[in-house]
């Protein structure tokens, strides 16, 4: 099984049902070293599914005391591939560092990671 952290629309049951065909279960956690900004979503199918034109996006921050709250979900490798299709090009999947010490995938700003 894979671990996937969500701080945005993947926490919505409707998005989970459409993306994975089931409601996900998980636990609360905090992503360290990032802050939230908003990004305009131009993919009409994602906007239709989420009901939102702007989604939160995690942007790397040098302040390790910054954190983003969300949920860590247990998903299959196939579901992880499905989540890759849901996320638009503004996001890149990376392994995150969490307050609990857990390791989980998280979608963060692709532009930040392109320069690192």
TrEMBL record:
It comes from hydrothermal vent metagenome. Residues 4-111 form the Gamma-glutamylcyclotransferase AIG2-like domain. InterPro entries: AIG2-like_dom, GGCT-like, GGCT-like_sf. It holds the Pfam family GGACT. This is Gamma-glutamylcyclotransferase AIG2-like domain-containing protein.
């Amino acid at each position: 099984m894979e671990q996937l952290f969500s701080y945005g629309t993947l926490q919505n049951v409707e998005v989970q049902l459409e993306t994975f065909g089931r409601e996900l279960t998980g636990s609360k956690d905090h992503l360290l070293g990032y802050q939230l900004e908003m990004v305009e979503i131009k993919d009409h199918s994602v906007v239709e599914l989420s009901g939102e034109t702007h989604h939160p996006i995690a942007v790397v921050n040098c302040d390790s005391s910054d954190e983003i709250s969300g949920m860590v979900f247990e998903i299959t490798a196939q579901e992880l591939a499905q989540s890759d299709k849901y996320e638009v090009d503004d996001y890149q999947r990376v392994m995150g560092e969490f307050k609990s010490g857990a390791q989980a995938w998280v979608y963060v700003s692709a532009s930040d990671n392109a320069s690192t």
